[in-house]
Amino acid sequence: MSEPALPDAAATPVYRGLLDIVAAVEPRIAAATRQELADQRASLKLIASENYASLPVLLAMGTWLSDKYAEGTIGRRFYAGCRNIDTVEAIAAEHAAALFGADHAYVQPHSGIDANLVAYWAILSHRVESPALRRLGAKTVNDLDPADWEELRREFNRQRVMGMALDAGGHLTHGFRHNISGKLFEQQSYSTDPTTGLLDYAALRAAAREFKPLIIVAGYSAYPRRLDFAKFREIADEVGATLFVDMAHFAGLVAGKVFSGAEDPIPHAHIVASTTHKSLRGPRGGFLLADKEYADAVDKGCPLVLGGPLGHVMAAKAVAFAEARQTSFQDYARATAANAQTLADGLLRRGVPLVTGGTDNHLVLLDVSGFGLTGRQAEAALLDAGIVANRNSIPRDPNGAWYTSGIRLGSPALTSRGFGQAEFEETAELIAQVLRHTTPTAAPGGQTSKAAYELPDAVAAAVRARAAELLDGHPLYPGLEL
Ligand SMILES: *Cc1c(COP(=O)(O)O)cnc(C)c1O
Fold it and tell me: Which of 143, 215, 312, 407 has the CA that lies 20 to 30 A from 4?
């Protein structure tokens, strides 16, 4: 079960026809779609949150399943005629639960952020609203008199959440001010040890005892290490918190069984939320896994916080989950982790410092301050040389969240293209060359700038040429010709 049942080349007439049909209405959309494939094929994509979904996954989205309204959940819809959406959603949920060994899966969320909102409201419903209704002898919120309802609304707002600090790799949706989670909850973050860069569980435990959060969030977007979810659960139980794991970034490593035991969140968390499009390699979307206690609460996601489910995307999620249940996906997940390791070792050997000194997941966080650069300068110089990666804060970043001092790299996308140890070793060399040859320059007018830089054209051209050779050796969707 390693090769796709049909080669990608089989999709050539399908996509040609599709683009002709679209072009007959709006040729610029067909052109941009064509151009995007060319751009994806030509870039050394190291963006840690991106991947390449298979053609079966992509094709499953282009259908009339999009035309159906299906608010509610399987078998309990607010619309008539939902039997095929019921089938699609049930198959996707069945695959997700089996893939991750979860009691329950909810596959409607349109994105990772939407999945997190469903998780927060499931926890608030289960732990705040339901007990209040019982206490007041009401069956639903409609039975509450206006004063009790106002008090309940204020009670939602008094709840507390603890998540990983943003500059330690946490996500905006874990209680920060620029996201509704920070406006809804009182928030306190936990962080990493300043000397090792590793998550400090003892400090987390002490802070949780003091702060007594309703919810502890475990998960990250830019922390290059594995988490110990057994320890997280122990701490959550100790303080009476619900453990919510946001595995948006590393779901593929869980699905592929690279993370097991204490590193597998499913047996330890009450609720797990995720994206489908990052290391899991599915369509752009989200989903949730819940234990028995929270299963009913997560199923209320639509219409509580979500708009109508996207039937065509749930179909693609089902295909992606089915793919991830094949043993070849475990090979992919292991290669993703091994490749990140090779990239990290290659960078370290070339004198590029890494936050935490390395990686044991799919991402690597470079500290570029030693090259005299901001993350923004390094990001732009790498792009000039054909390497796509994004700038990222490092812990206690002196350049803030806009300019930053870091570059985040991830192995999932290029591993999907078939890059192995040799190609990642060479990628490390190309990155090191760009960093060594990039110099900060003054802004026009003479002031120092955190954005201006110079990379000699000859270096950029040489790196671009070598990157193009590496990419040619591992074509994206081989045989697909538009
Ligand atoms: C990417 C990410 C999200 C958001 O996912 P979207 O699909 O962009 O909404 C949420 N949480 C974490 C930890 C992420 O890395």
Answer: 312
Rounded to whole angstroms, the Cα distance separating 268 from 291 reads: 9
pLDDT of 3 > 70? The answer is no
State pTM to two decimals.
Answer: 0.97
Burial 387-412 (b: 16+ CB within 10 A, else e): bbbbbbbbbebebeeebbbbbbbbbb
| Residues 206 and 354 both lie in one domain | no
Q: Give the tens place of pLDDT for each residue, 175-207.
A: 999 999 999 999 999 999 999 999 999 999 999
- Among the three residues 294, 324, 354, which one is the final residue of a domain in this structure? 324
Amino acid of residue 284: R
CA of 127 to the centre of ligand 1 (A): 24
188 and 124 in a common domain:
yes
Q: What is the mean pLDDT of the chain?
A: 96
Over residues 63-109, the pLDDT tens digits come to 999 999 999 999 999 999 999 999 999 999 999 999 999 999 999 99
β-bridge pairing 271-275 and 286-290: antiparallel
472, 477, 481, 482 alpha-carbon torsion, rounded to 10°: -110
Annotation says 33 is catalytic: no
Distance CA 177, CA 9 (A): 47
Provide the domain count of the chain: 2
300 carries an active-site annotation: no
List the catalytic residue out of 73, 192, 242, 275.
Answer: 275
Query: Which atom of ligand 1 is closest in space to residue 170's alpha carbon?
Result: 13
CATH of the domain at 390: 3.90.1150.10
**Residues 169 and 250 placed together within one structural domain of the fold:** yes
How far is it, in rounded angstroms, from Cα 324 to Cα 280?
Answer: 8
Which residues form the domain of 467? 328-472
Answer whether 47's CB lies under 8 Å from 390's CB: yes
Tokens of 372: 């005299």
